[in-house]
């Protein structure tokens, strides 16, 4: 039986090599064993996002952001996942918070502004 750490490291290695779908397997197992570990959930969210499994990625980033409401990266990734799902109005809030928490990150502002623009177009 693999330890949570071994599963996490294997998932990280696969993610680093661009094997996104494969990375979700050990990372999901690690998350199931340690559901309160933000680092595991965030890494799993990244793998799911890159594997274009945006609904599942949003759920992982939402869990991280719920546990740590000032985690700008989790909020940004939650917003990006929602954008990929076409849920621009819902993406506005986490992207706006991420941009406020990290005003030095221009990409946060750019995606926030894009979400706001697209949310206005679907009103």
Shape: elongated
Mean pLDDT over the full residue set: 97
Give me the strand/helix succession: HHHHHHH
What value does the Rg take, in angstroms?
15 Å
Sheet with the most strands, sense and barrel status = none
Count every helix, treating DSSP H or I runs of 4 or more residues as helices: 7
* Share of residues in strands: under 5%
Structural class: mainly alpha
Number of strands: 0
Cα distance, first to last residue? Answer: 51 Å
Helix content: over 70%
Low-confidence stretches: none
List keywords for this structure.
123 residues; mainly alpha; 0% strand; elongated
Brief sketch in words of this structure:
With 123 residues, the chain is mainly alpha-helical. The chain contains 7 helices and no strands.
What does the model show?
The protein is mainly α. Helix 2 packs antiparallel against helix 3 and helix 5 runs antiparallel to helix 6. The mean pLDDT is 97.
Topology diagram in text:
Elements: H1 4-16, H2 20-33, H3 38-50, H4 54-67, H5 72-84, H6 88-101, H7 106-121
């Amino acid at each position: 039986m693999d330890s949570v750490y071994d599963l996490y490291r294997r998932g990280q290695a696969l993610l680093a090599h661009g094997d996104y779908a494969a990375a979700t397997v050990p990372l999901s197992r690690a998350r199931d064993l340690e559901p309160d570990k933000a680092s595991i959930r965030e890494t799993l969210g990244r793998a799911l996002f890159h594997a274009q499994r945006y609904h599942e990625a949003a759920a992982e980033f939402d869990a991280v952001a719920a546990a740590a409401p000032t985690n700008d990266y989790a909020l940004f990734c939650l917003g990006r996942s929602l954008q990929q799902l076409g849920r621009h109005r819902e993406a506005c809030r986490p992207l706006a918070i991420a941009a406020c928490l990290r005003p030095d990150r221009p990409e946060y502002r750019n995606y926030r502004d894009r979400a706001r623009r697209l949310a206005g177009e679907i009103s």
